Amino acid sequence: MLGLRGQSNVAEPISSIPDDVLGYADNMRQHYRDQPIVPTDWPPKIGKDSYFGRLVLVEKKASCSTPAESDWYYTRGQVDKIVQLSGNKVINAEEVLKPTDSSLSLRVVIDGPPGIGKTTLCRKLLNMWSNGKLQQYDLVLYCPLRNSKIATATTLADLFVRQLNRYKNVPEWFEERDGKGLLIIFDGWDELSEQLRQSSLAASIIRKDKLDQCSVIVTSRSYASSSLLKMDTLSRHVQVIGFSKEEISTVIIQTLQKDARLAQELINENTNARNEYKLHFTTMHNSKDSQLAVKLINGLKVRGDVRSLCYIPLVCSMVILVYCKKGGHLPTKLTELYEIFILQTIRRHVEIKPKHDIDPFTLGSLSSLPLQLARPLQEMCQLAYTNLANRAMVFSLHEIQPLSQAVKEDFLGLMATFREYDEVKYQFLHLSIQEFLAAWWIAKHEKTEEVFKDHFDDDHFRMCLSLNTLNLPLDTAESAIELFTILQTNTTLETLNVEIKEERVYTSSMGTSLQYMLTQNQTLKYFEINNDIPSSFLSFLTTGLRHNTSIKHLNVYIPLNTGVTYFIEAISKKDNLKEINLNFILELDQSHSCSEEQRMTPLFYEHLLPAITSMLQSHTTIIELRIGCTHINGDWSEPHWIEPVKKLYDTIFIHPSLEYIEFNNNRTARFTHRSLEDTLRDQEMTLIERCRNEQPGKPLPIVDLNIIKLN
């Protein structure tokens, strides 16, 4: 039974709908019913029905002002706080298309970061309609905008992907009704060129210039949805925000512990009386799967950088897979996560379809693949890069046939196939996979600075360039000056991560250009210099950061000397800095006859620790602080060093926002300040008790000070 028809509050007699419309609708229902909600088993499915996590309805009047704040929480993985923003509330999939008071013809924008599950949500809605729900719609059309025929469509008939001759009059029937009873799902607004976002049929329908009686869902990555959110025709803005902290733990348990009974027992074992998860997971189970799940959950609490990505179902799946394959070790950064995942995909391909005398477990890295696998990977990286530049994400057979080695190797398992207009098409497992492979190609074969400049404003190169610029080499002062000059006025790039290996690059002109860039650019959020900065250059960085208001994550290597307090004092006044990673080095000085440890250790206790304590007392919004410092001798103790350590501890536990602090010596040895260790242990217990009493709603900060105490 089709039940209520059209978009009227009054049931429309089934006899008023032409047989060919009913027939085409039944045909599409069967087509959608036959499609799985999650179309591929790789990356592995996770959890139990964990398709896309939570949906948040954003109040329409707040849509134009909320994205910037939401984006900040997205980038840090603090998606739970998006729910708490004014006007936001969690909804379920059934509420996405709930009619508004003013209109039954809806324009719904669904956005979120890559891999969050926007397309999966679309498939869920298609499945719901095909199984008898959402019956206010006579027909639902799924229109992926990465399909060039849909992106460049000029008539409604062009959007009917399944064009069956016996139903050729169906589009005309809906056109005569101005789209009444029709739901169109445009998936992937961000995959349209800027021109098509202005002048395509899809844009006209979304703006209600055409088919104003139909309902429309349009999905987009968050960075491309701003134009949609400004439309007067917008009915509803829904954000896919993924898993909560507790859901991440649940998903890990349900994925690693295949026995449903044991999984539920592990969940119950770690749930307190308030029905919340305990701070530290434990298990009495002998099951290795349960023990591995507990180890991963506890490991993520220390590795907040990785945990902050796990709210995305795609990444969460990859993290669990990589963790298991690496023997219980987490990746150090996003690039490593993607690299290991792709390597594991190739291993899986070799194991499933053995065409060579290759042991998959001997494949150690993408850079050391045997020739018969390296060649197809190179072809696929080049395909990813050239087509990303041309905004092509779907490929026909004739487009991929020239990739002879990749075709021979079934694309190493990195591509999926689907049918479109009865033609087989190919696409990468996920757009982010294509972006990573494109970044790999750039790093190996292109002039990075030129690609960086050419594609600065290309939405689809954002992740690609971000991945690549984690290691963007600046070999000359001129190239650095050119880059920083471009960035002074750039308004799209959010992450800049550079390598400056030669000290000759650090000229005063280059320092001035960096200082101006940091002063002028107000969209950069992540800034890292992955090499030692000389003391002569520190003033430029200090002045630039003093005037910058956008950077939230800072990672630099700076010299530890008596003048470092000026730098720390400057960043202590920057409320925009939420995550700070300072790595202190000792500059070479031939005039000193004492050892590096003899020079570094007093500087650490007598200058650095008081400066860090003072910074925490001034900086009341910092969330994460990591301090790296080499050549600290833990066996060398002076009585007057105990007091600055105690003051640091006291400041940590009364800090209003600090969630994680780490002092890392970058060495495997632990230290044995026995008297200091005993003092800190007693003080820590007192401070924890005081923190719980005075700030009962605030979670205790995670503290790892392995330089100055024995764990």
Automatic annotation (TrEMBL):
Domain of life: Eukaryota
GO molecular function: ATP binding
Keyword Repeat listed: no
PANTHER family: SLR5058 PROTEIN
Protein known as: NACHT domain-containing protein
One Pfam family in the UniProt entry: NACHT
Organism, scientific name: Amphimedon queenslandica
Domain NACHT: 106-224
UniProt keyword terms in alphabetical order: ATP-binding, Nucleotide-binding
InterPro entries xref list: LRR_dom_sf, NACHT_NTPase, P-loop_NTPase
